Amino acid sequence: MPIELVAENRTPKPQPKPQNVNPFAQQRALVEKNLSQVKKIVAIHSGKGGVGKTTFAVNFAAALAIGGKKVGLIDADVDCPSCHKMLGLTGRVMADANQRLVPMNAHGIKVLSVGNMVEGENSANIMRGPIMFKLISEMLYKANWGELDFLIIDLPPGTGDNPLTIMQIAPLDGMIIVTQPQGVALVDAMKSANMAKRLGVPVLGVVENMSGEVFGEGGAKNAANELSVPFFGSIPLDKRFREHSEAGEPAVIDKEIFARFSKVIQAIGL
Ligand SMILES: Nc1ncnc2c1ncn2[C@@H]1O[C@H](COP(=O)(O)OP(=O)(O)OP(=O)(O)O)[C@@H](O)[C@H]1O
Ligand SMILES: [Mg+2]
User: Fold this and answer.
1) DSSP assignment string, the chain
2) 119 CA distance to ligand 1 centroid (A)?
3) For residue 189, which of 43, 48, 42 has the smallest C-alpha distance?
4) What digits encode the pLDDT tens for the residues 181-194?
5) What is the pLDDT of residues 224-260, one digit of tens each?
6) How far does the centroid of ligand 1 lie from the alpha carbon of residue 174, in Å?
């Protein structure tokens, strides 16, 4: 039987619509809508743990509030939160009639921390990625932040799930890197900057924390130069930070420390 040749159908097939590249575009749209009355959203990060990110975030927020700004603070360290502790916040977060979280108030700052959402100070918040994602995204899109000049987001260390979530779903104006001056901290600060760059988050600049005899001086400035971003100044290793945070108050209630933070804020120039 002769082979029947069938002409190839050259009619172009309908092309699938281009897919959205951000897998969390839906959540991001909700966050953008909910934070439409927030003028600037700034994350505080560093790859290394214990370098003073939360101390900086809390005092940065408090110094802005003392300066008359409307400020919010999100503790995005959902499994080991500490902003609430440093601000002496002991109550529980409530929801309003529309089931939106109502940020708490401490030292003139609106605050949301998982530390005020769980029972018992020492209970372990054992959670996998999806639960952390839910908690972080709800603090961003399901909370009644109202009008704010600044929303500061304190990120946990590392380049994993939680910082990634914030960088993908929050419309960040930028990220400030806080680091100690010594080599082991700087390596992780660079990782943090490179993560932000890859995710399209502007790195606003670098702050050196715990500067002085113990950890050294100048390393953060060199890192900022290497990254071609501004250096915003240094904050000394000073026991008053620990003393005030143990007392549940920001160290910037001390005039000298406030002056130091004011210089950094001026350098940031937001
Ligand atoms: N400039 C400083 N001088 C003295 N102590 C400081 C200073 N900055 C932070 N600390 C203290 O260092 C400890 C760690 O600070 P903090 O919790 O802010 O670090 P972190 O980077 O947020 O840690 P983590 O990575 O666990 O989130 C705290 O006890 C804090 O009081
Ligand atoms: Mg912290």
Assistant:
1) -PPPPPPP--SPPPPPPPPPS-TTHHHHHHHHHHTTTEEEEEEEE-SSTTSSHHHHHHHHHHHHHHTT--EEEEE---SS--HHHHTT--S--EE-TTS-EE-EEETTEEEEEGGGTSSSTT------HHHHHHHHHHHHHSB---SEEEEEEEPPSSSSHHHHHHHHHS--SEEEEEE-SSHHHHHHHHHHHHHHHHTT--EEEEEEEEEBTTTBSSHHHHHHHHHT--EEEEEE--HHHHHHHHTTS-GGGSHHHHHHHHHHHHHHT-
2) 24
3) 48
4) 998 999 999 999 99
5) 999 999 999 999 999 999 999 999 999 999 999 999 9
6) 22
- Nearest ligand to the CA of 58 is 1
Q: Which residues line ligand 1 (CB under 6 A)?
A: 49-55, 77, 82, 156-157, 209-210, 235, 237-238, 241-242, 245
Calpha distance 217→185 (Å, rounded): 12
Q: In whole angstroms, how far apart are CA 267 and each of 53, 205, 260, 270?
A: 18, 10, 11, 9
User: Which is the closest atom of ligand 1 to the Cα of 57?
Assistant: 18
* Tokens of residue 267, six digits: 């350098």
pLDDT in tens, 90-108: 999 999 999 999 999 999 9
DSSP bridge partners of 174? 42
Q: pTM score, two decimals?
A: 0.91
Q: Which CATH superfamily is domain 35-268 in?
A: P-loop containing nucleotide triphosphate hydrolases (3.40.50.300)
Non-local CB neighbours of 198 within 8 Å, separated by 6+ positions: none
Q: Is the pLDDT of residue 8 over 90?
A: no
